[in-house]
Amino acid sequence: MTVQKVTPATIRAMKGREKIPALTAHDYPSTKLLDEAGVPLILVGDSLGMVVLGYPDTTHVTMPEMEHHVRAAARARPRALLAADLPYASYDTPADAVANALRLVAAGAEAVKAEGGRSIIEQVRAIVDAGIPFIGHLGMLPQHVIEEGGYRIKGKTDAERSNLIFDAVALSDAGAFAVVLELVKREVASEITKQIPVPTIGIGSGPDCDGQILVTHDLVGLFPWFTPRFVNQRANCGNDIKAAISEWKKAL
Ligand code: KIV
């Protein structure tokens, strides 16, 4: 049986038909494991800054670091669509956005994601015009955590709700094939999901989005020092690793 490569069109066509599972991977083995588990959308997220590189937040992640991890993930040659984050300050202008998106594509990414709505719409148009599939990211924007002073739910006020809806429509009109909604109030995420023709992929935004994305480390307990409240952890790999090492030490 031939396995069909997942494309942006595949992800887009899943809207309204089946839920879209998406997870992060930052290296070869995790990409292979997620692919073998049948995850159709894999993101080399800049969450790598925290869960792999030990930075306090994603604003420290650089283009060379993203390229290094995208290359490792791409070597797994997944059936899944492999997307990658444009890191902090790498898409300040349309020219930068295209140049850096092309670098991620050269490293093996099949789509790129950037944070923001109408504020980056010229960059989004430039990326899409360059033929690079684009995923939007709205709600809590981790690359803005310092100016925001923390991670909080978005869409609680009327102004935030309408801004989020306008941003989501703008991203979809500009050619994004999916939009991540991070920490968006459930009702607002649900409204956006109904209003835009492309899939919404939620993270901490309630069950009504077209898909769900998580940082894999959070899902499987691989970064036990901090787990976001909305994550229903499914394994405790951190403990399993420590137990295996203790057993090995005892058996020496
Ligand atoms: O960096 C990341 O991993 C993300 C997520 C949406 C999980 O952007």
What does this structure look like?
The chain is built from eleven helices and eight strands. The mean pLDDT is 97. The protein is globular. With 252 residues, it is an alpha/beta fold. It has helices spanning 8-13, 28-36, 48-51, 63-74, 94-107, 121-129, 145-148, 158-174, 186-195, 216-219, 237-250; strands spanning 20-24, 41-44, 81-85, 111-113, 134-139, 178-182, 200-203, 211-214. Helix 4 (63-74) runs parallel beside helix 5 (94-107) and helix 8 (158-174) runs parallel beside helix 9 (186-195). It has a single domain, classed as Phosphoenolpyruvate-binding domains (TIM Barrel, Alpha-Beta Barrel), CATH 3.20.20. It starts with 7 loop residues before the first helix and ends with a helix. The protein has an eight-stranded parallel beta barrel with strand order 1-2-3-4-5-6-7-8, surrounded by six helices. The structure holds 3-methyl-2-oxobutanoic acid (KIV). 3-methyl-2-oxobutanoic acid binds next to strand 6.
Provide the fold topology:
Elements: H1 8-13, E1 20-24, H2 28-36, E2 41-44, H3 48-51, H4 63-74, E3 81-85, H5 94-107, E4 111-113, H6 121-129, E5 134-139, H7 145-148, H8 158-174, E6 178-182, H9 186-195, E7 200-203, E8 211-214, H10 216-219, H11 237-250
Parallel strand pairs: 1-2, 1-8, 2-3, 3-4, 4-5, 5-6, 6-7, 7-8
Helix pairs in contact: 4-5, 5-6, 8-9
This protein binds 3-methyl-2-oxobutanoic acid.
The site of 3-methyl-2-oxobutanoic acid has 11 residues, from β6.
The number of helical runs is: 11
- Looking at this structure, what is the CATH superfamily? Phosphoenolpyruvate-binding domains
- Indicate the CATH class: Alpha Beta
| Total individual domains | 1
Indicate the overall shape. Answer: globular
- The strand count comes to 8
How is the biggest beta sheet arranged? 8 strands, parallel, barrel
Strand order of the largest sheet: 1-2-3-4-5-6-7-8
The proportion of strand residues reads 5-15%
Q: Structural class of the helix and strand makeup?
A: alpha/beta
Mean pLDDT: 97
Radius of gyration: 18 Å
